[in-house]
Amino acid sequence: MQSGLVRPLPNMLPRTLFNAEHEAFRETVRKFYEKEVVPNIAKYETQQHVDRDLWNKAGAMGLLCATMPEEYGGYGVDRLYSMILIEEQAYAMDSSTGFSLHSDIVANYVNNFGNEDQKKKWLPKMASGEVITAIAMTEPGTGSDLQGVRTTAVLEGDDYVINGSKIFITNGYLCDMAIVVCKTGSNEKGSANLSLIMVEADRVGFSKGKPLNKIGMKGQDTCELFFDNVRVPKENLLGMEGMGFIMLMKELAWERMLVAIICQAGSEAAFAHTVQYTKDRKAFGKPIGTFQNSRFKLAELRTEIDFSRAYLDRCMELQLDEQLGVDAAAAAKYKISDMFSTVVDECLQLHGGYGYMLEYPIARAYIDNRANRIYAGTNEIMKELISRSL
Ligand SMILES: Cc1cc2nc3c(=O)[nH]c(=O)nc-3n(C[C@H](O)[C@H](O)[C@H](O)COP(=O)(O)OP(=O)(O)OC[C@H]3O[C@@H](n4cnc5c(N)ncnc54)[C@H](O)[C@@H]3O)c2cc1C
């Protein structure tokens, strides 16, 4: 397998988001991916999950939950650090590590809605990598329509008793704790039925399926979770009963941004690989990059990618000021994930037959990218959200 490590080409409009401390952090993350992840991607893809000790190494280097407050094991830094982590993962063309879901989604739920005991119990161990986490919303019978969740949590004495199952859960196979979206109310109340309950993986009745056999992202341990009369103390409830839907809504704009960031950086990585390839590969006695079609295709892609970069970085500025609207974030997620699909398709074409071979990073990017248009809300749901703002 060829190394996916690549540096993006400079954008036509220079980026302005980062200071020297951010860039120093970027260097640390880059080295981590170069040394610890890239050499092992083939192994992760074969076993369908990363090694557990990779999480401990990431934690020891301060790469997990960095935005969490210092008293809970983080560094209290801004979300540009999350952006850098995701970008460097994409520039390494890695789709195995599920750090972002753990640090930028699950940790936010615990920090935003957990009580002091819950934060102290979970966040420091999440930051060190001792505890790996997942968020379990989707079920075999419902994905886009969260209100259709059928997993139930019934209060019996001081315990919730949970029954049901979840599917397509990122970090599911390795997780030590999952935040599970459960129905706690009666059928009539719709979204007011939903609650978030933290379930430890060693609870009796909690079992995991094998990592699912996906078309791409093969090193990512996406799996099914099953709950058979799982008893958890009522202290495991996050926030208030019946407030699950509202809590899930709070960070949705940010969660969509995470996907947009992956796709933007993934497009830049695929583009950089392809520019290099078209310089190296010769046909008819000259580099394929010298043909007018290749040059025009690359110019078009450069333009698409840079227009999108400007929009995304502006969204990020608004996100840092907590001013990013749901519609703007939905637009970033849908448009940039669509662009990523176009970019990898055009880039694969410029690789010719080698682009179809899995040992080439562009081939893996081609299949890995596809899920981005589906998770964190499908692109059709994003268009629903945008249209509601009209
Ligand atoms: C690799 C991967 C990782 C994932 N990780 C997680 C995770 O960690 N946790 C988790 O909970 N889930 C996860 N998911 C699940 C993901 O969030 C869902 O697959 C997604 O929300 C879509 O739900 P669904 O698959 O049930 O599709 P459905 O909701 O059945 O949708 C099927 C099709 O119908 C369309 N559709 C549905 N409703 C509408 C509508 N109102 N208007 C127009 N079109 C509509 C959809 O856009 C889609 O094209 C993951 C999925 C994948 C593939």
UniProtKB/TrEMBL annotation:
<dbReference type="InterPro" id="IPR006091">
    <property type="entry name" value="Acyl-CoA_Oxase/DH_mid-dom"/>
</dbReference>
<dbReference type="InterPro" id="IPR006089">
    <property type="entry name" value="Acyl-CoA_DH_CS"/>
</dbReference>
<dbReference type="Pfam" id="PF00441">
    <property type="entry name" value="Acyl-CoA_dh_1"/>
</dbReference>
<dbReference type="InterPro" id="IPR037069">
    <property type="entry name" value="AcylCoA_DH/ox_N_sf"/>
</dbReference>
<dbReference type="InterPro" id="IPR046373">
    <property type="entry name" value="Acyl-CoA_Oxase/DH_mid-dom_sf"/>
</dbReference>
<keyword id="KW-0560">Oxidoreductase</keyword>
<dbReference type="GO" id="GO:0050660">
    <property type="term" value="F:flavin adenine dinucleotide binding"/>
</dbReference>
<comment type="similarity">
    <text>Belongs to the acyl-CoA dehydrogenase family.</text>
</comment>
<dbReference type="InterPro" id="IPR009075">
    <property type="entry name" value="AcylCo_DH/oxidase_C"/>
</dbReference>
<feature type="domain" description="Acyl-CoA oxidase/dehydrogenase middle">
    <location>
        <begin position="134"/>
        <end position="230"/>
    </location>
</feature>
<feature type="domain" description="Acyl-CoA dehydrogenase/oxidase N-terminal">
    <location>
        <begin position="20"/>
        <end position="130"/>
    </location>
</feature>
<dbReference type="InterPro" id="IPR036250">
    <property type="entry name" value="AcylCo_DH-like_C"/>
</dbReference>
<dbReference type="Pfam" id="PF02770">
    <property type="entry name" value="Acyl-CoA_dh_M"/>
</dbReference>
<dbReference type="InterPro" id="IPR009100">
    <property type="entry name" value="AcylCoA_DH/oxidase_NM_dom_sf"/>
</dbReference>
<dbReference type="InterPro" id="IPR013786">
    <property type="entry name" value="AcylCoA_DH/ox_N"/>
</dbReference>
<feature type="domain" description="Acyl-CoA dehydrogenase/oxidase C-terminal">
    <location>
        <begin position="242"/>
        <end position="390"/>
    </location>
</feature>
<keyword id="KW-0274">FAD</keyword>
<dbReference type="Pfam" id="PF02771">
    <property type="entry name" value="Acyl-CoA_dh_N"/>
</dbReference>
<dbReference type="GO" id="GO:0003995">
    <property type="term" value="F:acyl-CoA dehydrogenase activity"/>
</dbReference>
<keyword id="KW-0285">Flavoprotein</keyword>
<protein>
    <submittedName>
        <fullName>Acyl-CoA dehydrogenase</fullName>
    </submittedName>
</protein>
